[in-house]
Amino acid sequence: MGSLKVFGLPASTDVSRVLTCLFEKEVEFQLIRIDTYKKDHKVPEFLRLQDPSGQVTLKDGIFTFVDSREICRYVCEKYANQGNKTLYGTGGLERASIEQWLQSEARNFDPPSSALVFHLAFAVPMGLEPDEAVVNQNVRKLARVLDVYDQRLEDSKYLAGDEFTLADLSHLPNSHYLVDRSERGRELFYSRKNVARWWKEISSRPSWQQVVHMQSEHPGPLEKFKTID
C-alpha cells in the first residue's frame, strides 16, 4: 500500500475532487474518514494546525497538502505516467489551456455554484430557509458562466480540448449537487445543449461514479483503494 492518505468525507466537494483525481490516475491511497464538525470526533493534531477547514487533506509521507486543486495538480505531476496520462496535459500548450479553465472554475464557476449548492441542495435538509435574493443573484452569475461554457463546448468535446482533463474534473463536485438535488440547478445545465452533453459525459466516468457510490455509503474510518472495480 502506498503512503498516500486522504483525510475527510467523500460528501465534501473538495474531498470528492481529490478522490476522483486519484481514481483517474489509478493511485493507491487510504481514505480516513473524519468529520471535524463533530466535536466528539478525534482529529489528528497536524490536521488542526494545517487544515483548519477540515475539508480535505492529503498526506504523502512527511508532506501535507490542503488545497484540493493543488492536490490534484500534485497527484498528476507525481504520477504522470500512471492511469489517465492526459489528465493534466502532455505538453506546454495543453497544460496552459487546462490551467486557464482550472482558473475559470476556481474564480468564476465555484463562487456562484458553491452558494447555490448550499441554498438549493443543503439548506432545506438542514432546516434552513433558502435566501431567495442570494439564490437569484447566483443563478444569474452561474448562468453567465455556463453560457460561455456552452459556446466553448460547441467547438470542443471538453473544456480544454478533445480529452477529459482536470479542467472538467474540477467541475464535477458542485455540478453533481446542483443537477442531482435541485430542479433549478438541473435546469441551468440541461437548458444548454452543449453543457448538458458535457455534463452527461463527465459525470458518467467510472472515477466519478466510484466517488458517488462512496458518498452513499457509511463504512468504517479507514478504507484502502487500489483501482476502480
Summed up, what is this model?
The chain is built from ten helices and five strands. It is α+β, with helices and mostly antiparallel strands. A five-stranded mixed β-sheet has the order 4-3-1-2-5.
Characterize the structure shown.
- This protein has 229 residues and is of the alpha+beta class.
- The protein has two domains: 4-86 and 208-225, 3-Layer(aba) Sandwich (Glutaredoxin), CATH 3.40.30.10; 92-205, Glutathione S-transferase Yfyf (Class Pi), Chain A, domain 2, CATH 1.20.1050.
- 55% of the residues lie in helices and 8% in strands.
- The protein has ten helices and five strands; from the N terminus they run βαβαββααααααααβ.
- It has helices at residues 13-24, 45-50, 68-78, 92-122, 132-155, 166-169, 172-181, 183-190, 193-203, 206-215, and strands at 4-7, 29-32, 57-60, 63-65, 222-225.
- Strands 4-3-1-2-5 form a five-stranded mixed β-sheet.
- Strand 3 (57-60) and strand 4 (63-65) form a beta hairpin.
- Helix 4 (92-122) packs parallel to helix 7 (172-181).
- The chain is globular and about 45 Å long.
- The model has no long low-confidence stretch (mean pLDDT 87).
